[in-house]
């Protein structure tokens, strides 16, 4: 298949592009490189030394003999460029990773809130409008997040996107209706992902666009079979307080003997997935597009759930690290239960990588190898959800 990967230079997008290419698909990466500029803005760098995108794709050609094309385009603000790209590439599938994806970054200031809303909502809407304008039968695969469901402790396995509700009509007759599972976004970033869902519902109904929305858990790990083939293909690894996701942050902290920073009690339960499973799920979603009709296919892309405090203990036990409980910068429940259905991806053949695998140790070793690149002052999260949280942290 011909596949345009929007955001293909990012943490999930780069290894997914390589995996799709290695699986025999013709891949074009479309990226504005805004994520690399966010590193400059924040004064941080990936733990791993990532090469410029043109070097990455040239190395991949040498290593694999396969060509990945590369288009520099801001899909949120260059609509004509997006339409031209679709005309030139003529993709069968568009995989959409191209959004600002950090919740703390989205809450840093009014400017960051507005940037995240502007970038993410325009990016998604532009993609949908451009697909319709192209007149082509394109399957859109979008990376959403488990976070849209919110973290209420409901004694229910979270369904894959939809909930059937029963309600009495005006005559007292009970009616059933399937609705999108009600969202409860916990940041401006999650708010944009919640709004993406409505845009998908509309374009699927109105224009028959075939859409798969993958509600992904927190991704951990870095390297994949493809990125390990040459050091210049190495994947991005964010460890800082804005972009570092919780388990990857713990692994780097463990590698350099820095106390593991647990926000609040650590009683928050979250859904996780290894990067190797994430890219495999993308491939499975891409290759099963024929199943998708004008009802958005939602799949929960996660493999296990854990309490943050348990993860910290697991990592601390491996290396003898300390744990440092800090004021939670986020406005969220101290504790929650979470149980999730992921039948659809398992049904497509996903064979999950478990958290206690050797991969955890391999990631700590990677952290040790690149420890000289770590700026410890960038590890704490300095983004507060509201003034009360900031005051508590400053006390
Ligand atoms: P990332 O920031 O590493 O990558 C995103 C890429 O998109 C970057 O290369 C960036 O330059 C590009 N981009 C952003 N806006 C763009 C625009 N307007 N035009 C063109 N390119 C643009 O993020 P990631 O971790 O790879 O996440 C990718 C997707 O997966 C996101 O949508 C995110 O919400 C979702 N996701 C990620 C995680 C995770 O743990 N990393 C978890 C759940 C969901």
Automatic annotation (TrEMBL):
UniProt xrefs under Pfam families: Epimerase
SUPFAM superfamilies with a match to the protein in the record: NAD(P)-binding Rossmann-fold domains
Domain (NAD-dependent epimerase/dehydratase): residue spans on this chain: 3-292
Coiled coil: none
Family of the protein in this entry: Belongs to the NAD(P)-dependent epimerase/dehydratase family.
Name the record gives this protein: NAD-dependent epimerase/dehydratase family protein
Provenance organism: Gordonia sesuvii
């Amino acid at each position: 298949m011909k596949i345009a990967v929007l955001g293909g230079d990012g943490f999930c997008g780069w290894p997914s592009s390589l995996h799709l290419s290695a699986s025999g698909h013709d891949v074009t990466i479309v990226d504005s490189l805004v994520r690399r500029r966010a590193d400059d803005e924040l004064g941080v760098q990936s733990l791993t030394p990532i090469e410029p995108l043109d070097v990455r794709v040239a190395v991949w050609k040498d290593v694999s003999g396969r060509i990945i094309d590369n288009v520099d385009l801001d899909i949120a603000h260059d609509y004509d460029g997006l339409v031209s790209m679709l005309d030139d590439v003529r993709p069968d599938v568009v995989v959409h990773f191209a959004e600002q994806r950090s919740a703390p970054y989205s809450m840093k200031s009014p400017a960051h809130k507005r940037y995240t809303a502007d970038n993410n909502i325009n990016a998604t809407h532009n993609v949908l409008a451009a697909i319709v304008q192209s007149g082509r039968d394109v399957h859109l695969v979008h990376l959403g997040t488990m976070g849209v469901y919110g973290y209420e402790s409901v004694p229910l396995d979270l369904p894959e996107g939809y909930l059937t509700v029963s309600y009495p009509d005006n005559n007292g007759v009970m009616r059933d209706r399937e609705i999108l599972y009600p969202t409860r976004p916990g940041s401006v970033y999650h708010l944009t992902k919640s709004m993406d869902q409505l845009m998908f519902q509309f374009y699927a109904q109105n224009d028959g666009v075939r859409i798969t929305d993958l509600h992904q858990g927190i991704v951990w790990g870095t390297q994949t079979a493809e990125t390990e083939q040459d050091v210049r293909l190495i994947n991005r690894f964010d460890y800082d307080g804005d972009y570092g996701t919780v388990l990857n942050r713990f692994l780097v902290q463990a590698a350099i003997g820095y106390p593991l920073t647990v926000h609040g009690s650590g009683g928050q339960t979250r859904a996780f997935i290894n990067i190797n499973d994430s890219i495999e799920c993308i491939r499975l979603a891409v290759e099963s597009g024929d199943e998708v009709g004008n009802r958005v296919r939602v799949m929960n892309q996660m493999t296990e759930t854990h309490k943050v405090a348990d993860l910290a203990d697991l990592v601390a036990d491996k290396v003898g690290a300390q744990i440092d409980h800090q004021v939670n910068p986020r406005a969220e429940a101290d504790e929650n239960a979470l149980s999730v259905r992921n039948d659809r991806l398992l049904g497509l053949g996903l064979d999950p990588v478990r958290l206690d695998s050797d991969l955890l140790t391999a990631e700590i070793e990677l952290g040790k190898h690149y420890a000289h690149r770590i700026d410890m002052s960038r590890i704490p999260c300095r983004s507060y959800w509201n003034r009360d949280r900031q005051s508590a942290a400053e006390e």
